[in-house]
Amino acid sequence: MRSGILAEFDSADALARAYERLAASGYRRLTSWTPYAVRSVLRAEPRSPVPRWMLVGGLLGGAFGYLVQWWCNAVDYPIDVGGRPLHSAPAFIPITFESAVLAASLTGFFALLARCGLPRLSHPLFAIDDFDRVAIDRFWMGVDDADPRFDEGVAGELERLGALRCTRLWPSEGDAR
Amino acid sequence: MSLAGTAELELLRDEPTGGEAVLLETGTEGELADRLLAPLWAEWPWFKYALGVSAMGALALFAALTYTVTTGIGLWGNNIPVAWAFGIINFVWWIGIGHAGTFISAVLLLLEARWRTSINRFAEGMTLFAVVQAGLFPIFHMGRPWFAYWLVPYPSEMGLWPQFRSSLPWDVVAVSTYLTVSLLFWYTGLLPDLAAAAVRAPTPLRRRIYAIFALGWRGDAKHWNDYRATYLILGGLATPLVLSVHTCVSFDFAIAQLPGWHSAIFPPFFVAGAIYSGFAMVVQLMVPARAIFHLQGVVTKNHLDNIGKMLLVTGWIVTYSYLVEIFMAWYGGNPYEMHAILQDRPFGPYWFVFWGVIFCNCVAVQVLWSRRLRTSPVALFVVAGLIQIGMWSERFMLIVTSLHADFLPSSWHIYVPSWIDWTILAGTIGFFLFLFLLFLRFVPFIPISELNEMRREMRARGELNGARGRAFDA
Questions:
Q1: Do residue B226 and residue A50 have CB atoms under 8 angstroms apart?
Q2: In this structure, what CATH number is given to the domain that contains residue B232?
Q3: B207 in a structural domain
Q4: How far is A98 from chain B (nearest CA, A)?
Q5: Which residue among B214, B221, B251 sits closest to A31, beta carbon to beta carbon?
Q6: Residue whose C-alpha is closest to residue B97's, from B89, B109, B86
Q7: Is the peptide bond before A119 cis (omega within 30 degrees of 0)?
């Protein structure tokens, strides 16, 4: 969300109620910031692609792990140990598995950071007085002014729904995605 | 926010059976956060002494390792045939301790066992620092640790590659993967709490440091959406990982032909033993921390009760494995196996280790059948201490008794650890505690965000009044 109206709530329930009400009355571009995951609000989010990326990362990592072992022991530096096969798949399983887990986890962690745009230490939202309490016990909701349903009167509605205060975020203040 | 008040406290009390809920804290979410962050800002008059003592242990470790590297590996008590002794015993012991941390944070996450939430951060910290200790041993046991990078497949000018058909390179990959994944899992879980610490820190410098480590986390719904998915899959990956790591460790033994080692039961036996010793370590760290920081409302008797049950379960798996080992040695009829397991272990020169193991791992833990003792911090602490000793001795028994007397009596040899060996073992305990104390001092060690989320959900489902009181549910 680039610009719009932000409302502060003092409980997850109040936020969830307001969110539900606005969504029901046709708002589509709603955002929230919360100290912990509020499931009812998250339901509106699309399914995260990170697990699929982790699967791809894991498969590639496992394949790479297997290839390295095969190439090292069967191709580039073959040692005959009592006539055992140089390309012995069962012996390559543990490292293949570990490489898959390692690659999947690294993919997941860095994909998470990339999707969240972190690290980003300075953000226009933090310029709002006391916004940082969102990490402890304040719940914020944003209504994007690009929403077709948007009008400035939504601030009043949010206050009726229990918002402690509303703030207008203007486009010049930056990208608040 | 109407969580405060005595009526709520009544609701939070749990279970008709007289047990406690997993969460007894009342008050607002902000109050719970402040309660859990308070240890970070409080003065700890004892901290410098505790840190000093553990730092001396760490320094003794570094001194002993320096002496070993500059003089030679002959300072250790190892000999031929007992080429693996303290180096590998301590490695297996420490890495096993780490496993309970992953078990708590990953396996119990997937099982949705709520009692995990209060102690998972704590246990993950334990895992990280235990794996650090474990990693030291194979490196220094090589004798020439400056060549440790030879274990990594890199295009060297010698044209040599590691031999992956041996089980030892599996360990290298398993342990380094384990350390990395544990670190990622731990740090991902920490992000929201570091952001909370950044808000409440008393000085601008501390606020800034926590904010940097929080990476600018601001709890956007989009972020939470990806965060939850990633965290769950990381837990899903850590679960088979924890089983695979100790399986790889057990392969170091099971793949050899030595009597007492060459056994198909080793992977599950090792994993159960690892989780057993790890839960004992969780108890030994948690019981004092709970008392010192007055965390009885977050780490309740319900947690102690559940950990006690985990100790009983894993203790019985370990006991069963001992029985199967003895039975298979007899039933298999191999004279070398029979000698090693039926004669040498219980009645040979290391008989006291065997009987110590039986007492600590199989007998002492049985007192935990009593709920009163399970929920008594002191009793649990004492039993956990015995289990720690027992599990260390078990690794001594497996490694030393099998190696000192194998097939040919002419190659049998007694092993006695040197004082350097003992210094290194004690030193790793000091180094572990040193790292753990720093972790307690500077990192929010009880998950704040997760606890607040859990409390809200329990309240919404009306479960805070203990409608579903059974241990693993709670």
A1: yes
A2: 1.20.1630.10
A3: yes
A4: 6
A5: B221
A6: B89
A7: yes
